[in-house]
Amino acid sequence: MTSSRGPNSRGPNSRGRVELVCVGDELLVGDVLNGNAAWLGDKLCRAGLPVAAVVTVGDDVDEIAAALLAASARAEVVVVTGGLGPTSDDVTREGLAAAAVVPLLRDAEVEAGLERWYAERDLSMPGLVLRQADVPRGATVVPNPRGTAPGLRMELATAMVYVLPGVPAEMTSMAERHVLPEIVSRAGRPGPSVQRVVRVALEGEPVVASRPEWRDDAEGIRIGYLAEPGEVRVRVTGRDAAAVTRVAKQAAVLLGPAAFTEDDDTLDAVVHRLLAERNATVAVAESLTGGLLAAALTAAPGSSATFRGGLTAYATDVKGSDLGVDEALLAAEGPVDPDVARQMASGVRERFGATYGLATTGVAGPEPVGERPVGTVFVAMDGPRGRALASRRLTGDRDRIRRLTVIHALDLLRRHLVGLPAYDPGDEIGQ
After folding, report:
1. What does the pLDDT read at residue 94?
2. Do the beta carbons of residue 423 and residue 280 sit within 8 Å?
3. How far apart are CA 272 and CA 259, in angstroms?
4. Around 231, how many Cα atoms within 13 Å sit in the side-chain half-sphere?
């Protein structure tokens, strides 16, 4: 396979352009999420070299070679991950050799290193391992301190191609020690980007993105959006730290109560900070969320300072026996009821001696509960300054409903702690 592009055929915008080529059938069929691309994209963006394109190809020599030729015709730097192991489907070395139209040669130093690695561990070395010592002619080796598969560095057309293993721990170590510093140096040290992230709870991306007022006149400011269930991240990026901070603060103000941070803090972290500032604690009683709310509130180190504990009261009778919910109420209305949620919140607050109690109950599906349709959710908060309740009709599958309920619960407490009313889906954002 040969390339028809010469060294002067590159486009005018290739200077500093970085592309990623990710290799592996497992990425195409969904067995593995492409965390390597996300990690590299973040690191390169923060270095002032945002990734221009990401291509994923399977374990096929011709496909890999074609992707490398196409990327090297557009970019100054191409980073490849995956396909450097010893097995028959690890063919990235062959793909790089095919793209460069050169043979693979056995590297004696790499071979000796592999033999030493196995000998030091008193292990018998399978013959297949020596495939990792095959290097395309003209390429140099990138050391791998955490594994046996070395990386590769090679010029293709006028691009520098770096090939790294797909194992995340190996890839990140090699990238941080060798590849990222070289890429920044090769690009002429453009300077790091500054990033601020405003997080918005319970609003959709179209609503969040409809606020054009935060478009700043400062040159080089970029606004990006990342939507997740129940949350939107507004990413403000640029090289002028003051301008980035100004735009992020402007965005947070315009987004109003829905914006809970301009520093990329998670919602649970914000809740913990607000509780700590008030010397307060919280306990949770969960039905449909089945422990997900407690898991969110224990995700961060040190959360025991403000989280007292939780009770998963999944069965109806447990709500009465362990939380003190009125038996007559449960018999008359069933477990999915606003007053049941309120009593669960007050019961768990009393049981754990917490400042605040949070409770969730509802119908996650797939079947309705009595007359309550799937998606019916009640979230209650009980505290020293009163109670709050959120009644919702959520959409989606069981997992989505449960995870959205967690966000509604955390946001209900957050808003109460800062003196805001509970979220109303009918509110206009920023008002």
Report:
1. 97
2. no
3. 16
4. 21
pLDDT for 362: 97
Buried b (16+ CB within 10 A) or exposed e, 71-83: bbbbbbbbbbbbb
Helix, strand, or coil (residue 117)? helix
Place of tokens 């069981």: 398
Q: By C-alpha distance, which of 330, 199, 331, 41 is closest to 342?
A: 330
Phi-psi domain of 157 (left: phi exceeds 0; alpha: psi -120 through 50; beta: other): left
2 burial level (CB within 10 Å; 0-12, 13-18, 19+): exposed
Given this model, what pLDDT does residue 429 score? Answer: 45
Q: Tokens standing for 293? A: 């709310």
**Same domain (yes/no): 38, 168:** yes
**177 and 40, same domain (yes or no):** yes
**Over 80: is that where the pLDDT of 132 sits?**
yes
Q: Does residue 422 fall inside a structural domain?
A: no
Q: Mapping DSSP to helix (H, G, I), strand (E, B) and coil, where does residue 278 land? A: coil
pLDDT above 90 for 177: yes
Q: Are residues 223 and 234 in contact, defined by beta-carbon separation less than 8 angstroms?
A: yes
* pLDDT for position 5: 39
Instruction: Report DSSP letters for 64-116, one per residue.
Output: HHHHHHHHHHH-SEEEEES--SSSTT--HHHHHHHHHT--EEE-HHHHHHHHH
Once rounded to an integer, what is the mean pLDDT over residues 327-343? 97
Give the domain-ending residue among 131, 154, 186: 186
> Tens digit of pLDDT for each residue in 19-46?
999 999 999 999 998 999 999 998 998 8
| 395 φ, ψ (degrees, to nearest 5) | -115, 160
Domain of residue 359: give its range.
Answer: 267-417
Residue in this structure with the two tokens 């998963």, named with its chain if needed: 312
Q: Give the integer Cα–Cα distance in Å for 273 and 279.
A: 10
Tell which of 218, 243, 261 closes a domain: 261
Question: Distances in Å between the alpha carbon of 14 and those of 17, 40, 147, 193?
Answer: 5, 19, 33, 19
Report pLDDT digits (tens) over 61-104: 999 999 999 999 999 999 999 999 999 999 999 999 999 999 99
Q: Provide the residue type at 23 as one letter.
A: V
Question: Concatenated DSSP letters for 238-251?
Answer: ES-HHHHHHHHHHH
pTM for the predicted model, two decimal places:
0.77
